[in-house]
Specification:
Elements lengths: L4 H18 L38 H16 L14 E2 L9 E2 L2 H5 L11 H7 L6 E5 L28 H12 L8 E4 L2 E5 L1
Antiparallel strand pairs: 1-2, 3-5, 4-5
Protein name: Retrovirus-related Pol polyprotein from transposon 17.6
Pfam family, one: RVT_1
Organism: Trichinella spiralis
Length: 199
């Protein structure tokens, strides 16, 4: 006799709760308890390029308090640090006008050697899911803050790995593939900070 759908659902919940308790030491319950990875560091290879120094962009007066609050939060969490670097890239607002800390690294990116680490092909990812019946999706919260910049490159940017650096995607994909190597393809697929677990 098969269990009813309600009994089966309750069994799955109990099993999931047990797994979450077992691995609670590696799961985050808020942005406050996220730590940096030691698996990879982000490198910014600029060769012998002279430092790029851009003029700051105007921040509207009504948004300054939001920007200051974001900077204070990032300083408190050791995501940014005070700097006297000869390199400088401007802070910009997102295209949709919302307040999320964003740096315009286009000038720095022009001098940065590109990382050839590939991102997964979407069609291959979809093909790998054929036949799976169960799916769970995960997305790394503020994942780019968790990847540290190589020491010799920190003066180029005081940020750990902000969204705008040209090789940030390759660095992050490399991190996720390294961490989930034994599960890739058979149990999960990774696209940057998004993970799908299937079975």
């Amino acid at each position: 006799m098969l269990p009813s759908e309600q009994e089966s659902s309750g069994n799955h919940r109990s099993a999931l709760a047990a797994i979450l308790r077992e691995f609670s030491d590696v799961l985050s319950t808020s942005d406050e308890d996220l730590v940096r990875t030691s698996v990879v560091r982000h490198a910014i290879h600029t060769g012998d390029a002279k430092p790029v120094r851009c003029s700051p962009r105007r921040i509207p007066y009504h948004q300054r308090a939001q920007v200051e609050a974001l900077l204070d939060e990032m300083l408190r969490r050791d995501v940014v640090e005070p700097s006297s670097s000869p390199w400088a890239s401007p802070i910009v607002k997102k295209k949709d006008g919302s307040c999320r800390f964003c740096v315009d690294y286009r000038q720095l990116n022009n001098f940065t050697r590109k990382d050839a680490h590939p991102l997964p092909r979407i069609d291959d990812t979809l093909d790998a899911l054929v036949g799976a019946q169960w799916f769970s999706t995960l997305s790394r919260a503020i994942g780019y803050w968790q990847v540290e910049v190589e020491g010799q490159d920190r003066e180029k940017t005081a940020f750990i790995t902000p969204f705008g650096l040209c090789n940030a995607l390759a660095t992050f994909q490399r991190l996720m593939e390294t961490v989930l190597r034994d599960l890739m393809g058979s149990d999960c697929l990774v696209y940057l900070d998004d993970v799908i677990v299937f079975g």
